[in-house]
Design goal:
By secondary structure, the chain is of the alpha/beta class. The protein is 43% helix and 18% strand. Helix 7 packs parallel to helix 8, helix 7 packs antiparallel against helix 12 and helix 8 packs parallel to helix 10.
Length: 298
C-alpha cells in the first residue's frame, strides 16, 4: 500500500541518464512516494526527459544551479510530515521509507534518520558506514540507533517540521558538507539525529562530477561551518588539523582563499552552539581526525 507520510526530493545537475535510472527505481518502491525533482540548471535535456518519461514526478526546473538549496525548493512543495532526500545516483531500498516513517512516528523529537549505504555495483558497505555505526556521539537514551553529530543528505529521511525549524539548507554554503551546519542547528534546538541500520540506500557514484570543485567547496564549507558555530579553541584546533592534512596544491589554495573571502559575513553571523550541541561536535573531533572516509582529496 502507498505510504502517504513520506515523499522524496531529488536534486540533479547534468546527469540525465543517472537521474532517469534513479527515478525508475524510486517509482517502483512499494511506498509509492510522491517524488519532486529539482533540476539545477541542466542543459543536457534532463527536464524534458523527466516530463516525457515520468509525468507523475513533480519537476522544478531552475535556470541556475542552486546546489543544496534546491532541496529547500523541493521541500516547500510538500505537505508530507517526512522527506527522504536522494541524489541522482542513489536510490532507496524497498521498505526503507516506510520503516523510516514508522521510526519518526514513534520518536517525536527525532529529526533525522540516516541509512546504511551500499556501494554499487557489488553492494559493499560505504567506508563511512562503520563511522556511523560506531559513532562516539552521546544522544538521548530513547534513540533507536547510534546518535550522530551530522548526517548525509542523500541517505537520510528528515522530519519536515525540524527542517523548517532551522530554515533548511544554507544558501551561503551552496553544496559540499552543507549538512554539518544544519545538524548543529538542529541539535541546538533540541532535535536528535541517529543512524538506523534498518534503512538502506544504494549509491552508484556518477562519473559526471568535478572532484576538484567538490574538494574546493568542501574545504571552504568546513572552515565556514567551524567558525560559524564552534567555540574559538575547538575551531582553531580543527582549522589547524585541516591545514596540516589537505593536499598542498592549487585546489586547496582556492578553497582557503574562498574561505578567507567569506570571513566578514562569517564573523558577522557567528553564533556559537550551546554546550549540549557543541558536545556532539567535540565527540566527533578525534574520529574525524582518524577518518579515512572524510579526507579532502580529489
Amino acid at each position: 500500500m502507498r505510504d502517504p507520510r513520506v515523499a522524496v526530493v531529488v536534486i540533479t545537475h547534468q546527469r540525465r541518464d543517472e537521474l532517469l535510472r534513479a527515478l525508475d527505481r524510486l517509482l517502483a518502491l512499494p511506498e509509492q512516494p510522491h517524488v519532486v525533482v529539482v533540476d539545477n540548471g541542466s542543459t543536457d535535456g534532463t527536464a524534458e526527459a523527466v516530463r516525457s518519461r515520468f509525468p507523475s514526478v513533480e519537476l522544478i526546473a531552475s535556470r541556475r544551479n542552486l546546489g543544496a538549496v534546491g532541496r529547500n525548493l523541493g521541500v516547500a512543495r510538500l505537505d508530507t510530515p517526512y522527506v527522504a532526500f536522494c541524489d541522482d545516483d542513489t536510490w532507496w531500498e524497498p521498505g526503507s521509507l516506510r520503516t523510516a516513517a514508522d521510526t519518526l512516528d514513534a520518536h517525536p523529537r527525532l529529526a533525522v534518520v540516516t541509512a546504511r549505504i551500499l556501494v554499487e555495483p557489488g553492494g559493499t558497505e560505504d567506508p563511512i558506514v562503520p563511522e556511523l555505526r560506531d559513532s562516539p556521539v552521546r544522544g538521548a537514551d530513547w534513540l533507536p540507533g547510534p546518535a550522530l553529530g551530522s548526517f548525509l543528505a542523500g541517505a537520510s529521511v528528515l522530519r519536515r517540521a525540524a527542517f523548517d525549524d532551522v530554515g533548511g539548507f544554507s544558501e551561503r554554503l551552496w553544496l559540499g558538507g552543507e549538512e554539518e551546519l544544519m545538524a548543529g542547528d538542529l541539535a541546538a534546538r533540541g532535535w536528535e539525529l541517529c543512524y538506523l541500520p534498518a534503512l538502506t540506500v544504494h549509491h552508484e557514484a556518477s562519473r559526471a562530477r568535478d572532484p576538484h570543485r567538490r574538494r574546493r567547496d568542501g574545504i571552504r564549507n568546513t572552515l565556514w561551518t567551524t567558525w560559524l558555530r564552534r567555540p574559538a579553541r575547538p575551531a582553531l584546533r580543527r582549522t589547524a588539523h585541516l591545514l596540516r592534512t589537505v593536499p598542498r596544491d592549487r585546489v586547496t589554495a582556492l578553497g582557503l582563499l574562498d574561505a578567507v573571502r567569506g570571513l566578514p559575513w562569517v564573523l558577522r553571523e557567528r553564533r556559537v552552539l550551546p554546550p549540549h550541541a557543541e558536545a556532539r561536535f567535540a565527540a566527533l573531533d578525534e574520529a574525524q581526525r582518524r577518518s579515512t572516509a572524510r579526507r579532502y582529496v580529489s
